[in-house]
Specification:
The complex is a heterodimer of chains A (214) and B (222). Chain A is of the alpha+beta class. Chain A has three helices and five strands; from the N terminus they run αβββββαα. In chain A, strand 3 and strand 4 form a beta hairpin. By secondary structure, chain B is mostly helical. The chains are: A alpha+beta (214), B mainly alpha (222).
């Protein structure tokens, strides 16, 4: 046994910590480009459901604007808007917002709204709803989210933006009503935001740009 | 005790001392991700690789690590390996990574890995420790896959859906036997019930084998 076991142990720990940290740093170096590319690909793929039927220029992902929380859009985390253009004229805005009152935490949603205020498509990006019940909001599992395409603030009128059980116009999901309520509320709030900020949504400078170019 | 052969070691890891089925270790990930076969395969492979490498590192450093600080060192080693595994999954299997979510980082807390480090790797040479990690990890991974396949079949009516998450390509929906299924199986209680059934089945098989191994008499000859 050494006279200074504490010091010895400390040095051993420090060496092992340094080796382990280098291992993680090395793995990060090898993987970070692939991870960034994957995230970009995933983003472009996940925007697709809200872009169908639109004519637009490529480069949608470069038109990103991050709206830091707190904001008037649904959700307490940062919201993101992608603007879609055809030539110089705005075609649609894609909102990434959070529905706060899901059954198990926030539901991250993509809501596409065209220039006339009509929903182009809704897609659930991330959620923790119950498998087999609330998770039918995923487009891979059911076509429930498709019912919002083509709807707008006037169709149905404000009181109709509810599930049928609550006297509204939208289908519920059997066995799950908390989840659909949360999503419908979030879509409605996003539509209201777009209605009120239609000009500024398209005028805002994209992330990483200083000001709007002519 | 004579040195066990490789086959004996595999029998031990896969059956007699299976970390999930017999030692009931690592139940948190086991119960949480086994809703489908592919999730079981993904988390099983990740756990297996962490277990092999952590056993190798713990074994190779065992001579100059004082007993008092061995636990923090296991934690350091395992946490770093899991972080690396997570990065690798994010880089090469992004869809599977999204499906497994928090349970890849949570491999850190899988006590089956610390158990192998403490029970085996800290007392045995590196070669034996790697084999131990391999057999125990395989035992755990196979159980995850078996329970995943079972719950997927009962709960969704499919077999091996979404294999594309691991192997790339177009979304594959596997072999769909029935559309929709008995929901309970993929909910959390289904995980407990399935594990219970697996443990019961294993015990029943062991008991039956124990009985058939007795000297044959005309009574139990059928």
């Amino acid at each position: 046994m050494s006279d200074t076991p504490v010091l010895k142990s400390g040095i051993t720990l420090a060496i092992i910590a340094a080796v382990c940290t280098s291992l993680v740093a090395l793995t990060y170096q090898v993987t970070h480009e692939r991870i960034a590319a994957n995230e970009q690909a995933w983003l472009e793929q996940s925007l697709q459901p809200a872009l169908s039927g639109l004519f637009f220029d490529s480069g949608v992902s470069e038109s990103k604007v991050t709206i830091p929380a707190p904001h008037e859009l649904p959700g307490s985390s940062d919201a993101v808007i992608y603007r879609v253009y055809s030539g110089d004229s705005p075609v649609a805005a894609l909102f990434i917002v959070s529905a706060r009152d899901g059954y198990a935490g926030a539901i991250r949603l993509l809501v596409g709204i065209d220039i006339n205020g009509t929903v182009t498509g809704v897609h659930v990006l991330a959620h923790r709803e119950t498998p087999g019940l609330g998770d039918r909001i995923e487009s891979a599992k059911s076509n429930w989210v498709e019912q919002f395409s083509g709807r707008s603030l006037g169709d149905p009128v404000a009181s109709g933006w509810k599930i049928k059980r609550d006297g509204g116009e939208f289908d519920q999901l059997t066995g799950a009503s908390v989840t659909p309520r949360a999503i419908i509320k979030a879509i409605k709030e996003t539509l209201i935001y777009f209605e009120a900020n239609r000009v500024s949504v398209f005028a805002a400078a994209a992330d990483g740009l200083e000001e709007v170019s002519e | 005790m004579s040195t066990p052969t490789l086959i004996d070691r595999f029998k031990t890891g896969l059956w007699y001392e299976n970390p999930g089925l017999v030692q009931l270790l690592g139940l948190c990930p086991l119960l949480a991700v086994t809703s489908t076969f592919i999730n079981g395969l993904g988390l099983g492979t990740a756990t297996l690789s962490v277990m092999v490498v952590s056993n190798a590192l713990v074994s190779s450093t065992r001579r100059w690590i004082r007993r008092e600080i061995r636990i923090p060192i296991y934690v350091l080693i395992i946490a770093s390996l899991v972080t690396c595994t997570e990065l690798v999954f994010k880089a090469w299997f992004p869809a599977l990574d999204r499906s497994l979510g928090i349970f890849i980082p949570l491999i850190v807390t899988n006590c089956a890995i610390v158990a192998r480090a403490e029970i085996f790797a800290s007392r045995n040479p590196i070669g034996a420790s790697i084999i131990d990690g391999l057999v125990m990890g395989t035992g755990f991974a196979l159980l995850l896959m078996a329970i995943g396949a079972f719950r997927e079949l009962i709960g969704q009516g499919s077999i091996m859906a979404r294999m594309d998450m691991l192997f790339g390509g177009e979304p594959m929906y596997g072999l769909v036997i029935v559309d929709g299924g008995f929901l309970l199986a993929i909910l959390p209680p289904g995980a407990f019930i399935s594990l219970g059934l697996f443990v019961a089945a294993k015990n029943a098989l062991d008991r039956r084998r124990h009985q058939t191994n007795r000297p044959m008499t005309s009574n139990n000859l059928r």
